[in-house]
Amino acid sequence: DADVTQTPRNRITKTGKRIMLECSQTKGHDRMYWYRQDPGLGLRLIYYSFDVKDINKGEISDGYSVSRQAQAKFSLSLESAIPNQTALYFCATSEPGHTEAFFGQGTRLTVV
Amino acid sequence: EDQVTQSPEALRLQEGESSSLNCSYTVSGLRGLFWYRQDPGKGPEFLFTLYSAGEEKEKERLKATLTKKESFLHITAPKPEDSATYLCAVRPLSYNQGGKLIFGQGTELSVKP
How far apart are CA A39 and CA B81, in angstroms? Predict the structure, then answer.
């Protein structure tokens, strides 16, 4: 089983619908992140959480919200999906300090 | 503004043809520079971390180097299985509590047999 698991892997939704992307991890890391990947733009940070009580906005948080249900679970919600939120979404975890991040397999979201 | 730029955007090599990928960065201070490999439809997979100018790391056919302004990922005698997108990311000192990464756009490497 993967250390960082994202569900669903693929999702097509309609404009205006609320959708939740889920992430769970078995690495025991306190820090979790949500990134978005678009062609030509690289990975951009949406939200990050350093522990259950500490949630912070990233560079592109507008239109998104998150919930840290437990140390191992971090969910990303699109309250009212719009077509320009069509992208590949990645959850990641890391340990404190100057360490690398570990990524999930991604969720491909299409908003029509 | 903290920024990471990778070049070239795409690189096609013949098997065995060595080359280098570039990652230029502009940050107020560097906590670390990271290289990842990403296969189609998958999440980025960690390769290397570099912390200070002059540092080098190697793994099989890959070697990463770091200067004060850029990093190179050298690929020696590549094989078709090295085909992937290679991502560079930096963690600036300005991110006080660490953790966050700024990514470049990636270099898509294709190695033909």
Answer: 22
